[in-house]
From TrEMBL:
Coiled-coil positions: none
Keyword match Transferase: yes
UniProt xrefs under InterPro entries: SAM-dependent_MTases_sf (IPR029063)
Organism annotation: Amycolatopsis dendrobii
GO function terms (MF aspect): methyltransferase activity
Protein name (record): Class I SAM-dependent methyltransferase
């Protein structure tokens, strides 16, 4: 996955919307139908961040994706849809509860999805040594973030998404988001977000483009889009730049 050597930027995301317009439209239609089939399902990803996740997965074509936290499987189905459209890659999902196993479409899961129920802090280490894309939306307390920042990030070479960081312009103190943002600043790691509260320009630009392309129809009602996206390299610590020596975006 050589292309993950570069960072996520607004220019990149805009180009991916244009490149995958028709596939994204079909994916949204499928996700909308999936949501109608499971009206009690809690849909954690808002539309823009779900679409960005789908588009990055289409672009990066990861062979191994690990998702920590799935709840009812909404993010799981978006990830699996991208892998299915790539016709490549496998996903392992870790969660304390098994609700996702009841909602994820079998056609998406077959041959590309493994669910492991339990605490990621004990289950994840054997999975992460060669992960290509790590998706985190689990325990939002600071202590959970401290675990993966100290025990996981220094060992992986991967693209990363972390949810629920920017519901506000800055994360609340003593939360996962505050710990992650502090780590990003300390390691000089660039990140991208389309969070309405944090990145008004990016949020507005993407919504304008979505309207232009005709892919702005709502699937989910949320509008915060608090997820962040970044790239880290193996053996990151406070004395190095997590983004590595090659941080210029490709467009």
């Amino acid at each position: 996955m050589e292309r993950t050597a570069h960072q996520v930027t607004l220019d990149l995301v805009r180009s991916l919307y244009r490149e995958h317009t028709e596939a994204l439209r079909a994916a949204k239609d499928a996700q909308r139908a999936h949501r109608r089939a499971h009206p009690a399902m809690k849909t954690q990803l808002d539309d823009v961040e779900a679409e960005i996740t789908y588009l990055l997965l289409r672009h990066l074509r990861p062979e191994k994706v690990v998702e920590i936290g799935s709840l009812h499987g909404w993010s799981t189905s978006w990830i699996l849809r991208a892998l299915a459209d790539n016709d490549a890659g496998e996903l392992t999902t870790i969660d304390l509860v098994g609700n996702a196993t009841k909602t994820v479409p079998r056609a998406l899961a077959k041959g590309r999805w493994e669910f492991r129920q339990g605490d990621a802090r004990t289950i994840a280490p054997d999975l992460l040594s060669d992960v290509d894309y790590l998706f985190i939306d689990a325990d939002h307390r600071a202590r959970f973030a401290k675990w993966y920042l100290s025990d996981v990030f220094p060992k992986i070479d991967a693209a990363v998404s972390v949810h629920d960081v920017f519901h506000r312009a800055a994360p609340l103190p003593f939360t996962e988001g505050a710990e992650v943002v502090r780590w990003l600043e300390k390691t000089r790691t660039p990140y991208f977000t389309a969070a309405r509260a944090r990145a008004k320009h990016a949020y507005a630009c993407l919504n304008e483009l979505r309207r232009e392309l005709g892919v702005d129809s709502a699937v989910h009602t949320g509008r915060d889009n608090p997820m962040i996206y970044f790239r880290i390299h193996r053996s990151v610590d406070a004395r190095r730049t997590a983004g590595g020596p090659e941080v210029a975006p490709f467009r």
